Amino acid sequence: MQSLPQAVSELVHDGDVVALEGFTHLIPFAAGHEIIRQGRRDLTLVRMTPDLVYDQMIGAGCASKLVFSWGGNPGVGSLHRMRDALGAGWPVPLQIEEHSHAGMANRYVAGASGLPFAVLRGYAGTELPEHTDTISTVTCPFTGEELAAVKALNPDVSIVHAQRADRAGNVQFWGILGVQKEAVLAAQRAIVTVEEIVDELTPVPGAVVLPSWVLDAVVVAPGGAAPSYAHGYYDRDNAAYKAWDKVSRDREAFSVWLKDLKENAS
After folding, report:
1. Which of 158, 194, 203, 242 is the most buried (most CB within 10 A)?
2. Is residue 165 within 8 Å of 218, Cβ to Cβ?
3. Is the pTM value of this prediction over 0.70?
């Protein structure tokens, strides 16, 4: 077990391809905030659904590129720090690489499977293949059908949040699951923050267990997914998502938020 500052210091480097995954809940906010505090730069941020934590990291100047399939403040509106970086280059210019949800999920699966690309039926009728060099086509050797092909995703480091780990470093998470397992298995290095350490990972319906040998660091971080929620531990803080809209619209207000974050380590 490590502290969060230690794990980020050792495993997240300037220029890395970094994936923070978690769908609806178990979003690794605490880890994202620690990356901001440590001043990481020139990151390629990967996430199927970038929301507040990536808006915050982009606004802090951590990212030079975003790879994603949908971005927004869920139930509220736009990501204004992301829009400012794209439109005005503040605080640094941001490149984007856009995919469909299915394309991103299949890219992680290919990366986790040790394959160079994934094949799917998708992207037909869109202009994404014209603008994204990680989307191509392949001809089925059996039917002759032309299918979409997407390059495998292998992040330098993937970070996820989970409910609990045992004392041997095995991690268990459950509830609405996204691509956390695939993101971890596809990555060169992996950090998992957890709500608690337990003596035994008792069975939970639908749970996924990540064995210790696929992880580089397990960090105890109670509340590490807030303001998103951790199923069985705490609820989503809807007020925080609404409040972020006002903060993120204004560079000065955001700068105050950023100063407070850096001065008040969790």
Report:
1. 158
2. yes
3. yes
Q: Are 76 and 45 in contact (CB under 8 A)?
A: no
Rounded to a whole number of angstroms, the distance between the first and last alpha carbons of the chain is 17
Q: How many CB atoms lie within 10 A of CB 237?
A: 13
Instruction: Tell me the residue ranges of DSSP E strands in the chain.
Output: 17-20, 43-47, 63-68, 95-98, 117-120, 135-139, 146-151, 157-166, 171-173, 189-198, 208-210, 217-220
Phi, psi angle pair for 32, to nearest 5°: -60, -40
- In this structure, the number of other CB atoms found within 10 A of the CB of residue 207 comes to 16
Q: For 17-27, what is each residue's pLDDT tens digit?
A: 999 999 999 99
> For residue 235, what are its two tokens?
């609820």
Structure-token pair, residue 56? 């915050």
pLDDT (0 to 100) of residue 266 = 54
Distance (Å, whole) CA 14 – CA 62 = 9
SS3 112: helix
In sequence order, what are the residues at sequence separation of 6 or more whose Cβ sits closer than 8 angstroms to the Cβ of residue 26? 160, 161, 162, 163, 173, 175, 180, 225, 228, 230, 231
Q: E strands of 1-94, at which residues?
A: 17-20, 43-47, 63-68
Rounded distance between C-alpha atoms, residue 212 and residue 82, angstroms: 35
CB neighbours (10 Å) of residue 203? 9
The tens digit of pLDDT for each residue in 125-147 reads: 889 999 999 999 999 999 999 99
